[in-house]
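ZP: hey, is the flavin-adenine dinucleotide complex queued? I don't see it on the tracker
AM: it wasn't, my bad. submitting now with these inputs:
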Amino acid sequence: MKPAKFDYYAPGSLPEALALTAQFGDEAKILAGGQSLMPLMNMRLARPGVVIDINRISEMAYISQDGNDALAIGALTRQRAMERSSAVRETFPLLAAAVPYIGHSQIRNRGTIGGSMAHADPAAELPALGLALDAELILASATGQRVVKAEDFFLGQLTTALTPGEILTEVRFPGTIGRWAWGFQEVCRREGDFALVGAIALLDLDGSGACQAARITMFGVGGAPARIPTAEERLVGTTVDSADREAAAEAVSQALDPVSDIHASATYRKQVGGVMARRALEDAIHQANGASRP
Ligand SMILES: Cc1cc2nc3c(=O)[nH]c(=O)nc-3n(C[C@H](O)[C@H](O)[C@H](O)COP(=O)(O)OP(=O)(O)OC[C@H]3O[C@@H](n4cnc5c(N)ncnc54)[C@H](O)[C@@H]3O)c2cc1C
């Protein structure tokens, strides 16, 4: 399949790219890694009149760590660069461990963090990680920039807070959550496929093992990744023992309201969502107890 006709621009700087997005508005699409946009264009599910290729804007690809263990990642940073970064491994080991679940290495060699966030596939790992880790997204336009929290960015299936004329330039991960105990689980039919259901657990445990705060984030189960407050509340103040984990998993299953599609039924996603959440919690507790990860 070949895409419909389009005009192609390859600006060499962010201001140039922003001038083009201001000029063309919703007629234009940004091309980053092309791993989602090109298949959509080739199948003619997307027909932008203008493609603005940002791959020459090398200043948009960086991983920088600040003194408080926060990370700032340029939108054009390849997923493979995140996977290989010692700064990511040290400050956000959850990110380093979860990024390899995205497709295959060939896809991660081209796919970018910004492209994945902007595309907002409900089964994608990076949007869920952004929500779980309280990421902030920096959106630039010809008239300035704004900062949007992940919880306000993902609005629904393939829908974000980005407006015509805006480019996502950076994703920031605040330092506080990076050191919490974590677990990441997903189920898919074949390695490299999008997740049918996924769960991320983050636990802030005090010295005695009591849970100060918990974050349970689910993906692949609705239009956008979602936290499950009922499950989180069930864990706070407990030692997250097996009964607590089971109760939280049950709360996850009850809270989920997934759709059926060609990949899995709603009933399957509800049930397996609880199982994934329980296993992610088990991983987090094993990690907190110093056990090596299975
Ligand atoms: C076979 C295959 C398997 C895959 N498996 C997975 C998987 O398991 N998990 C997963 O998460 N993903 C998977 N992907 C998708 C992959 O991760 C993509 O890299 C990602 O979805 C999009 O990133 P990209 O840089 O390629 O963006 P592109 O395809 O270039 O762009 C995607 C969308 O985002 C917009 N965009 C891109 N960058 C910006 C920006 N900076 N500002 C504003 N808008 C922007 C584009 O206009 C477009 O609408 C898979 C892809 C393939 C082909």
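AM: back. DSSP finds twelve helices and 14 strands in the chain.
ZP: great, adding it to the tracker
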